[in-house]
Amino acid sequence: MKRIFSLLLIAFSIGLTPAQAQLEPFTDYEISDAVWEIGTIKVKTNAGDHYLEGLKATWVRGAEISKELGYIEDYSIYSSITPESGDFNLLLVTKYASLADMAPSKEKYEAIMDALGQEQADADSKRALETYPELREITGSYIVHEIDLK
User: What is the longest distance spanned by two Cα atoms in the chain?
Assistant: First the structure.
């Protein structure tokens, strides 16, 4: 009886074990050329509006310039509806057409600085260095592709 029970248990557990992955990239699923850079941020309690005000003047402005210049495709800010749960409560997302588009270059830097202006760039840096540490903690940074299962 014990032996039959053991055999049934083994057979049952084998049936629950996932089959070896047999999906083939570009046959069973597509991997996007586009990539998303995702920053995870833990904004401190009651600091959300103040931090968003700073982001509007710094991060959003830089993202708008980068988008106008064609260096990025899009950008977004996502906020958790449960801000006190988990390691982060805000996502800063930037979409690039490809991984290669993330590469820095002198040309991109100079174009952004020309559009932003040195005085504004200095003010943004000062704000980020002096104010942001009191408002938030950067908890992670990720670069991801989209997977499209066929």
Answer: 83
**How many folded domains does the chain comprise?**
1
Residues whose CB is less than 8 angstroms from the CB of residue 139 and which lie 6 or more positions away in sequence, other chains included: 40, 41, 42, 87, 88
Q: Is residue 14 part of a domain?
A: no
* Residue 112 covered by a domain: yes
- pTM of the full predicted structure? 0.79
Residue 46: inside a domain, yes or no? yes
Query: Sheet containing 136-149: which strands, arranged edge to edge?
Result: 74-79, 90-96, 29-43, 136-149
Contact 127, 58 (CB under 8 A): yes
Would you write out the chain's pLDDT as a tens digit for each of its 150 residues?
555 555 445 555 555 555 566 888 888 999 999 999 999 999 999 999 999 999 998 999 999 999 999 999 999 999 999 978 899 999 999 999 999 999 999 999 999 999 988 777 777 777 778 888 899 999 999 999 999 999
Q: What tokens were used for 135?
A: 């408002």
**Domain limits at 129?**
33-149
Does residue 130 fall inside a structural domain? yes
Long-range contact set of residues 73-82: C-beta below 8 Å, sequence gap at least 24: 73/34, 73/97, 77/52, 79/48
